[in-house]
Amino acid sequence: MNSKKTIFVLVLPGLAVMVFAILAPILLSVYYSMTNWSGFGAKTFVGLANYKEVILQDKTFWRSLYNALILLGVTIFIQNVLAFLLASVLIKLSEKLSLLLRTIYFIPAILTVVVISKLWVNIMNPNYGLLNKVLNSTGLGSLAHSWLSEPKTALGAVIFITVWHGFGWALLFYYSGLTTVPKELEEAALVDGAGPVMRYMKVVIPYMMPVISAVIIIDIIACLKQMEVVMLTTSGGPGNMTQFVAYHLYEQAFKYSRYGYGNAISILFVIIALTITLLAKKFLSGDNGND
Amino acid sequence: MISRRLKNSASQIALFLFLGLIALAQLFPLIWLFNYSLHKSGNLFGKAIMELPSPPQWVNYAKAWTNGRIVQYFSNSVFVVGISISLIMIFSFMLAYACSRMKWKWRSSVFTIVLLGMVIPIHTTLLPNFIWFKQFGLINTHLGIIIPYIAFNMAFSVLMFIGFLQSLPYEMEESAYMEGAGLRMILLKIIAPMAKSGFVTVGIMAFLNCWNEFIMANTFLATESKRTLPFAIIRFEGQYSSDYAVQFACMIIVAIIPIMIYFIFSKRIIAGVTAGSVKG
Question: Of A30, A85, B123, B142, which has the most beta carbons under 10 Å away?
Answer without folding.
Answer: B123
